[in-house]
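Figure S7 source data.
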Amino acid sequence: MSEQALVRFDVEDGIGVITVDYPPVNALGPGVPEGIIAALEKGEAEPNVKAMVLMGAGRTFIAGADIRQFGKPRPVLPRRTYDVLDQGTKPIVAAIHGFALGGGLENALACNYRIAVSSAKVGLPEVNIGILPGGGGTQRLPRLIGPKAAMEMIVSGRHVPAPEAKTLGIIDEIVAGKDLRAEAIAYAKTIADRRPLPRVRDSSEKLAQAKGDPGMFEGMRKSIARRARNQIAPYHCIAAVEAACSQAFDDGIKTERRLFGELENSDQAKGMRYAFFAEREVARIPGIGKDIALPPMKNIAVVGAGTMGGGIAMSLADFGHNVKIVDATPEVLAKGMQRIQDNYAISVKRGSLKQEEMDRRVPRIHPVERLEDIADSDIVIEAVFEEMPVKKEVFAKLDRIVKPGALLMTNSSALDIDEIASVTKRPELVCGAHFFSPANVMKLLEVVAGAKSAPTTLATAMKMGRDIGKLAAYAGNCDGFVANRSRAPFGTEMVLMAEEGALPEQVDKVMVDFGYPMGPFAVGDLAGLDIGYASRRRRAAADPNFRKLPVPDRLVEMGRYGQKTLAGWYRYEKGDRTPHPDPEVKRIIAEVAKDMGIQQRSFTDEEILRRLLFASVNEACKILEEGKALRASDIDVMWLHGFGFPRYRGGLMFWADQIGVAEVHRQIEEWHQRYGARWKPANLLRELAQSGGSFRDAKKI
Ligand code: 3H9
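Tokens for the predicted (S)-3-Hydroxyhexanoyl-CoA complex:
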């Protein structure tokens, strides 16, 4: 594409209008900065141009640098757009709609004025891809709004709505936005003769804030210590803002460049960039185009007012949907509604939700007492007990009662979708919608395809997920679907390793150091060990070869259910969630090991990490070779958003790719020899190791 096509320049009424036109989001891809510079030079040279406007065509202003170009060699431009904007002699107005993010906002900050429509959002979200604003954002934003507010924006990476941006001082004026071009031209005329030109780089009053509050930067570092554990970018962001306060503008820019250079090719930035694109790729199901016509999604109902059903109803209400919720008895329904109220009230108490917002959301959830009351639904999401006969009974009833054409989705986390669909006369309208717990918090939604699920059914479930802020991922119908099935061997290995001598506290420390927010044993105690116990019993009854896990079984049989009984893998003090290693657990583990003839030994941290994660990588390969997942990166998205896998490591399969398929295969083969059948390498793993392939490119569909 030619530069003219990427950036247009035309003159109207003495105002030069520069329009970036690089769909879908006007990223600053190759040719765009060059096009902006060429247009600016044209505007400077034309005597009849009194002022200029910089805007974006289509749905947005500029979403930032082209992320696809990072990590690749790029031509070094003799001048950057920011410098050309700074050196201009004619006023330039950035006219923002949609998003002004990263390099987009940085260009706007180098303009003399900024106007925006009220629905616009601005931000410097670079930290979310493991880098920092490298186009002067760390130097200009603190000068414009003060270092404290700037640091908060840069370190959080949040998108700031235009009205708030106006209050902060980023935006000069909010415009109606009916015809942004006309409004921007009108605004540009009002400032065309004003001199001197306001330049953010020249103003330093706001920086004085740092002198009055010398502990500001250290305070910020402390406040993010938990959230940003192990990460480099957030701390570099703080250092860059600190430089804005202690160095002259041009020196600050050099510091920003140096810090940016340290981050761009870091492993963390690579992992986060990969995650960014994986999260977008996950929305695509081959064979289902964007233009597929979808049935209505207006009337939605949830069956089951337990923890999951309530959480699903909240997820819908949070995004403005009215939702009916039904349960077997008025008592259970009332209890469920109370739980919903309480959960919202906790968020209000913590300050993460405004009372007015809670008052808007709760009335969107309508409790009803009979299935007949949800007969007019377009979509029904079932969230009753995880027992096949119960699910079948509910689906048979729903099929009779709910209007023809309505979609019936099950929130089952493992049961056979085809068996559930078989009791209905509309199997093509049935699929799984597996929310993760707590459903109103966790972002992952597995959309599970039954053998007869129609493309429109799957596309509707995916869209519903996206509409309520979830990352919806396709999964094939198999035991545990994709996320839980790939996680299951991790859960088994951690217990078997404990029998061999790796104690919960060592395993948990390894995984927390790796980047998980909590170790897996501590998570088990939080969720309740009785849950896994019940499911193991069920599965053992159905499958004589099902592997027994005597240690957790014994803990549960002793009444050690986890945090709720103040004892599980750890012991707890009343009113305190801190896990304390328990000699009693060590004794039980040693006893079980002795009974089973297992020789206990010591483990290195590396062995623990590999054993847990490689077990899952091998299972993920089986899932891929069976075609139950569409791509390795979908499994990564599931691990990032379902299990708290550290985002800066990209995801399970991306992490394994960094180690290399050959090494993963070698290690798994070694453990296959030592531990037997459960470590048999997946065929796909063997093939990839032989062909020199990568997990990332392994698609089996
Ligand atoms: C930066 O600016 C560094 C600077 O400091 C300067 C350094 C010198 N690049 O998300 P969507 C694609 S770093 C390339 O589905 P939405 C995206 O992959 C950058 N591609 O839409 C997708 O492609 P496809 C700082 C990009 O409406 C399509 O556009 N900026 C970029 O849900 C639609 O995206 C950011 O981090 C990009 N920058 O959300 C902002 N952005 O259709 C990143 C998007 O093939 N972007 N694409 O899958 C976003 O947060 C969201 O895309 C946005 C729109 C909110 C803008």
